[in-house]
Amino acid sequence: MNHSLNRETDWRARAVVAVLAVIAVALGVRLVQLQWFERLAFSDRANRQRTFVESVAARPGDIVDRNGRLLATTISVRSLYANPAQIVDAAKFASDVAPLLKLDADRLAERLKQNRKKQFLWVKRRLTEKQTAKIRALEMPGEIWGFRREFLRRYPQGELAGHILGLRSIDGEGRGGVEQKLDDVLRGRNGERVLIRDARGRVIDVETESDRPAEHGRTVVLSLDAIIQLYTERELDRVMEEWRPSSACAIVVDPVTGDVLAMASRPAFDPNNPVNVLPAAWKNTAIASMYEPGSTFKPFVVAWAVDRGIITRDESFNCERGAYRMGRRILHDHHPYGQLSVTDIIVKSSNIGMAKIGERMTNRSLYEAAVTFGFGRRTGTELPGELSGLVRRLSKWDRYSTGSIPMGQELAVTPLQLITAHAALANGGKLLSPRLVLGDMEAMEEFGRRPSPMAASQVVTQTVGAEAAAWVVSGPMRGVVDRGTGKKAQLPEFTVFGKSGTAQKHDPATGKYSTKRHVCSFVCGAPADNPRALVLVLVDEPTVGTSHYGGTVAAPAASRILQKTLLHLRVPAGPPEPRTASGR
Amino acid sequence: MYFRFGSALVLVVLISLAGIALEKRNLDLRRSVTRQRFRRDVLHDTHIRMRLETQRLGAPAQTIDALESGELHVEPHGKPMLKRGARKPRAR
């Protein structure tokens, strides 16, 4: 009996030992599996659960004018998100939140229901301070909502220079203007921060060793002067009100440096509030529209012909009493003229006189003049969307061109090209590419407020000799303002030179030049002996009144901009010098 | 033997306490650095907002009419204002 009991106990003990041994071996195997074979995978998983890499957004850089006035900056604001998976009553959440954010409650509730499995849903981005405070005051449970910090671009000068600045999309990408062109400089580089979280996902520490700080965007300095820009935009608004054109633009440049001091187009938009904007308002007319320059092209032809010795300054041409046959075509002047000097051909803007100069020059020389003054190619300014204008190949020019080109027809230019070429005349014949960006602030401080290496290098071309250029400016172009088509641009305190342009637009219905649709332009500068500023005003299709000439529509605005610019630049005022024979 | 054991135990406890104190101090300092960073960010944001507001209020569009009508007067950049009666320094 005892014997059999002992045997039974032995068997049970062995069984227990065996089971325990199996369990021990299994645990050992599992331990080896966990600690040896799957160690890296589990370690990675643990790290992922414990740490969280947060992106630190770089703050986009500021844009300032040449005097440091702020044109664009970035502020930090809060955006509201919801956690639909944790929201029990979507309708209540929506009815609480929507009225504070001016949202449609039903639509918000619908969105929450549609995304109820998600843990993140934007409710509204970039809230105002008041909206943020109101949302906080609701004291909703923390797991169903939250704020995220985002950057918001602001333009403290409002509409001012909107076309040049461009804007930033809701995702912080530059759209148009300097914002787009210099996006890589302005945007900066996002950083990273490693956060340590506990089991519930709360942040308990920041791993400073692996921090990569954000590199904020740099501050870009433009050549614009906000005050001159304001004068220019106000005058354009006045022109728009008075003449009701389809569009208008104005540019102010310093002819010596090529700096663009102001550039404005109408219609315009407010980059702070880019909603309900007319499609035409997005267009920067100053660089993205092409027109036939009309009579504003004449000074280049004369300067070229005088410089190359094709004509002489004291020569005169018979203007055929207002009608001149060129092949099958009869050219007309606005008024019949007889014998006119070269100066008077410009002053009176005689098409026949210019056609005769064109005949003397031949097409090749006219083509060379157009190309040398920069027409038919981009000026190289730092703005996206610039057009190159249109100068057809010389092989396509014919006898018709010989009469048309000298009076600014058969070629198309952008307003910026036109003023850049006139700046060359005012700068002793040196053509400079216009400069809109002076550099970035930090580099400029290093370089003693001079344009930093970031500024686009300026291309300098000698178009005509300094003597011919100075003569055209102080002789014929000054005469235009003194006694010609630009009398409305006279200023009592400065010697102004200029040239008006009235170009007929092509009428697609008839295939001919329209007699009703015009592009009126006026370019002027002062002082004539040492030009400090040059202004171009271009008005496309004025509709009010009948006298649609550059000298009546654009000249008054151009001269007011010029006057205010010169006073702002503290150019010493002096009475106009009496004209001399050499100035004719 | 008991004395040696007790001394070793006390030593270990003291080292542990010192370690804990150092760790707490370390955490305090890190918290302080984080707080200061946060404050710096808040101040930076405030500075940007105030600068924006200053520039908005002093924008040429707001002041140009007053300047032109003579209500406001601005001295040119970079030239220190001389007190009435003070002589201009001689150029060397």
What does this structure look like?
- The complex is a heterodimer of chains A (584) and B (92).
- By secondary structure, chain A is an alpha+beta fold.
- Chain A is built from 19 helices and 22 strands.
- In chain A, the strands form seven sheets. In chain A, strands 2, 3, 4, 5, 10 and 18 form a six-stranded mixed beta sheet that branches.
- The model of chain A is unreliable at 579-584 (pLDDT under 50).
- Chain B contains two helices and no strands.
- The longest helix of chain B is centred in the first third of the chain and has 56 residues, at 2-57.
- Chain B is rod-shaped.
- The N and C termini of chain B lie far apart (91 Å).
- In chain B, 1% of the residues are buried.
- At the A-B interface, β3, β9 and α9 of A face α1 and α2 of B.
- Overall geometry of chain A comes to elongated
- Name the poorly predicted regions of chain B: 78-92
Category from helices, strands and their pairing of chain B: mainly alpha
Poorly predicted spans of chain A? 579-584
Fraction of residues in helix of chain B: over 70%
Strand percent estimate of chain A: 15-25%
Q: What form of chain B results from the Cα inertia axes?
A: rod-shaped
The SSE string of chain B, one letter per element, is: HH
Label this structure with key terms:
heterodimer, A: 584 residues, alpha+beta, six-stranded mixed β-sheet, five-stranded antiparallel β-sheet, 22 strands, disordered C terminus, B: 92 residues, mainly alpha, 2 helices, 72% helix
Strands, helices and their partners?
The complex is a heterodimer of chains A (584) and B (92).
Chain A: H1 2-37, H2 39-50, E1 51-56, E2 63-64, E3 70-82, H3 90-101, H4 105-114, E4 121-124, H5 129-137, E5 145-154, H6 162-165, E6 167-168, E7 174-175, H7 177-181, H8 183-187, E8 191-197, E9 203-212, E10 220-222, H9 226-243, E11 247-253, E12 260-266, H10 285-288, H11 298-307, E13 316-318, E14 323-326, E15 329-332, E16 339-341, H12 342-347, H13 351-372, H14 399-404, H15 415-426, E17 430-432, E18 437-440, H16 441-446, E19 460-462, H17 466-483, E20 497-507, E21 512-526, E22 533-540, H18 550-553, H19 555-568
Parallel strand pairs in A: 2-10
Antiparallel strand pairs in A: 1-8, 2-3, 3-4, 3-5, 6-7, 8-9, 10-18, 11-12, 11-22, 13-16, 14-15, 17-19, 20-21, 21-22
Helix pairs in contact in A: 3-4, 9-19, 11-13, 11-17
Chain B: H1 2-57, H2 60-69
